[in-house]
């Protein structure tokens, strides 16, 4: 396999555009997934009979092939970015929901009891005690979901919103490996940079862990 390295500077603007397009699909999917997962995780944590149902449904959705999800969504949302984001959001849910539930479960019951004894209402206890203590576990799920979303965006090239996935399609159709290599390299770099950003956010948001270290 011969790679034409001169192709990269000649297509610099296209690569930047596709990279930004890739991010504009992956990032909203993770954010929407987190917004949906948080309340569902609180329900699953506090209403035990619903725990198995919510986690089971998310697991079932995760088993559906990504292309199949996009195809199923097409009659509803059409050939739009909404289809790509919705499909990816469904995939992130299984990771985000499970990690958020596990994070809330990891909060010691004595900490909740102490908060209640001090007169804090359940919502305040959740926001000021439980979620902050569960934050590292939740962020671990966000990191996995983000890398997964960045990887799966390429599949959305099937409906024209695959970002860097268009490089794979172009390379395979023309039997020209250079765009494929470019797509792989940029996807890996995006995943590494995104993970580094999330690690930094976690480090900044958990000063108590820094002090303990």
From TrEMBL:
Limits of the ABC transmembrane type-1 domain: 19-198
Cross-referenced SUPFAM superfamilies: MetI-like
Keywords assigned by UniProt, alphabetized: Membrane, Transmembrane, Transmembrane helix, Transport
One GO CC annotation: plasma membrane
Compartment list: Cell membrane; Membrane
Domain of life: Bacteria
Tagged with keyword Ribosomal protein: no
Gene3D superfamilies according to UniProt: MetI-like
TM segment ranges: 26-45, 52-73, 79-97, 133-160, 180-205
Pfam family, one: BPD_transp_1
Membrane topology: Multi-pass membrane protein
GO BP terms in the entry: glycine betaine transport; transmembrane transport
Organism: Streptomyces malaysiensis
InterPro entries: ABC_transp_perm/SBD (IPR051204), MetI-like (IPR000515), MetI-like_sf (IPR035906)
Protein name: ABC transporter permease
PROSITE patterns: ABC_TM1 (PS50928)
Family per record: Belongs to the binding-protein-dependent transport system permease family.
Organism lineage string: Bacteria, Bacillati, Actinomycetota, Actinomycetes, Kitasatosporales
